[in-house]
Amino acid sequence: MGPSADRSTVELDELAWKFLGSEFTQDIYADWPLDRRLDAYLRHHQLAGIIDDGAVYSGLLDRVMTNMAAARRGGILSRGAAVRRTRLGHEMTQTEPRQDVIRDAVALACRAPSLHNTQPWRWTLDGSELHLFADRLRVVLSTDSTGREVLLSCGAALDHLRVAMAAAGWDTLVERFPDPHDPDHVAALKFTPTSIVTDAERKRADAILARRTDRLPFDAPPEWPSMEVRLRLTVIPHHVMTDIVLDRDRPMLAEASRLTEQLRSCDPSYQTELDWWTSPFALADGVPQTALVSDSEAGRVDVARSFPSARRTERRRDIGEDRSKIIVLSTSHEDARSDVLRCGEALSAVLLECTLAGLATCTLTHMTEVAPSRDVIRQLMGQAGSPQLLIRIGIAPSDDLQQTPATPRRPLTEVLEIRQ
Length: 420
Fold this sequence. Notes:
Layout: H1 9-20, H2 34-44, H3 54-73, H4 99-109, E1 121-126, E2 129-134, H5 148-167, E3 170-176, E4 185-193, H6 199-210, H7 224-235, E5 241-244, H8 250-264, H9 268-277, H10 295-298, E6 325-331, H11 337-356, E7 360-364, H12 371-381, E8 386-394, H13 398-403, H14 412-415, E9 416-419
Parallel strand pairs: 1-9
Antiparallel strand pairs: 1-2, 2-4, 3-4, 5-6, 6-8, 7-8
């Protein structure tokens, strides 16, 4: 090759390929930024003059980045080779996320809400592709005989995963139900690097850890009209219908909730499952005693599932009755699995948006598990869709939010399989 200033694109391309096949792109240098590796390669081969020639160096760097995908496919470039910020200030990213990044994102995704905290999901990492499966062994049969709520839970976990990966600098490409022969294969996920991570994306990921299911009474959310608009906009991308329960319809909804729970009190199978998932001896799943309310506290919430009573407590005495707003998320095509999954994704989006706004939330599915109660909700909303869940939204004292412990989660080793 001639002087650096005279190097052609062909020569730079040839040099880029030699670098990509060198020891400087191997895993031993995984912690080095790309420009440091390239500098070391050039110096090692007595080509230091290129380093000082900004135009040529930039051209070489561009050829390296252009050829990386082909080098990886051809086995020339190690799958684990990392690429980071260059000395030129260009934002260069890995072409595939590191395994630890995906593990951390899955751990955050598993903070998603689920019926009785059953956590009915499992993940498989195969190379750089992540797969989400519904875990039918964790279906609460008397409560969720069709597995509808399993898909809602998986949808929430899927959206949490996207949020976590976005905060780590990755866009998530989702193929829902990729295998027509395996209905439990909920999603296949691939990742592409983003050029920037915004503060809003980081805050949304932080909201995953801050969110709690709060079964105590709420005070009315402030500035509700603007918050309602915000939530409706949040749901639009998920193709889910959003309705707000009007104050005048609240008594009818509360009566339907009470009758639903009264019928359930006579169902021994339902009660046995409820007792199982609220056992004080559960360590990694189920509803812990700290998340339950006393009879007195429950009596001040008019729309709620009835759980076994917790210890005698009288929290939030200044809130004489629940003054929350209730929103309903519904699908257009009854319980089509793709629609139900997207409704779960919308649930995640709403919960995180409320958390960012400093609002408390409680997801309710007890009324959508019973056909008559679903019909009542349809009538109140004045639409023909299929109600999937309700969410109570309101204000809780800030001290309560800080003191409420997070519900337990299963160890990552139980829910994530890594295939080598």
